[in-house]
Amino acid sequence: MSDTFKVAAIQMLSEPSVAANLAAARRLIAEAARQGARLASLPEYFCIFGMRERDKVEVRERDGSGPIQQFLSDIAREFGLWIVGGSVPLESSDPGKVRNSCLVYDDRGERVARYDKIHLFGFATETERYQESVTIEPGTAPVAIDTPFGRMALSICYDLRFPELYRSLAPMDIILVPSAFTATTGAPHWEILLRARAIENLAYVVAPAQGGRHVNGRHTHGHSMIVDPWGKVLGCLPDGPGVVVAEIDPAYRATRRASLPALEHRVL
After folding, report:
1. Confidence band (pLDDT; 50, 70, 90) for 268?
2. Count helices and strands in the chain by DSSP H and E runs
3. Choosing from 117, 132, 191, 236, which is the catalytic residue?
């Protein structure tokens, strides 16, 4: 494709109430549509940021059925947008865990892709401790899909630290990274990692995030951003709920790849 188009990275400050989060997501998606976005991505855990890690297990849905999935389908159809549902807790083979699943819906409300988060976050200091493997069953298969916007690679948050995931899907035109980075790790690493993934793959990166101090006390880094294939940040929202909209230019991406054919120079 050669025509430019707009995409949106939606930043949220999600809470324990699924209903409240869906209402907030709807308002932000409406704003993305108002600004002309044709593709909008929600952040990881957009639908629930519980008081306990197990809260997401309590609201898990069967694949293909449930109020969260129905919301995503309905909102995509209502606004005529492609929607990336950051992550949705779906049933896993272990009844005590979920799959953390990124779901993509086209502008007719049809689901066209599912990616289950492969890399599970683990981090421990004297003051913070996270271990996603306690409540999440990892996915096993990388996912990229062909869309009217080009080939899109799906990933979630901690996946960003593993460049081999994206290399296995290359070449792609857009990389999606819905996230909930901690403030502790996000401040030194988030922007650098996003720009690196954009540069090494000569692809646009769309990275919606959770941003701010949540009801449960957790502090997420925010800084939702859209990065171009040369590593330039096209838009960024440091903190709080909102929408980052930027224009994607396939011709610009093609020009950069022609001038620096690094993807063709790969040996390993």
Report:
1. confident
2. 6, 16
3. 117
Q: Is 66 within 8 Å of 52 (Cβ atoms)? A: no
Catalytic site residue from 44, 91, 132, 137: 44
44 assigned to active site: yes
- CATH code for residues 5-260: 3.60.110.10
pLDDT at 1: 54
**Angle, helices 18-34/67-79, rounded to nearest 10 degrees:** 20
Residue ranges per structural domain of the chain: 5-260
pLDDT at 260 over 90: yes
Q: CA-CA distance, 30 to 120, in Å (whole number)?
A: 31
Sequential DSSP letters for 151-220: EEEE--GGGGG-HHHHHTT-S-SEEE--B--BHHHHHHHHHHHHHHHHHHHT-EEEE-BBEEE-TTS-EE
Q: Please indicate whether residue 157 is annotated as part of the active site.
A: yes
3-state DSSP assignment of residue 69:
helix
Cβ count near 237 (within 10 Å)? 19
Among 82, 80, 92, 151, which Cα is nearest to 120's? 92
Helix (H) or strand (E) holding 143: strand 143-147
Among the listed residues 56, 97, 137, 157, the single catalytic one is 157
- Token representation of residue 27: 């308002």
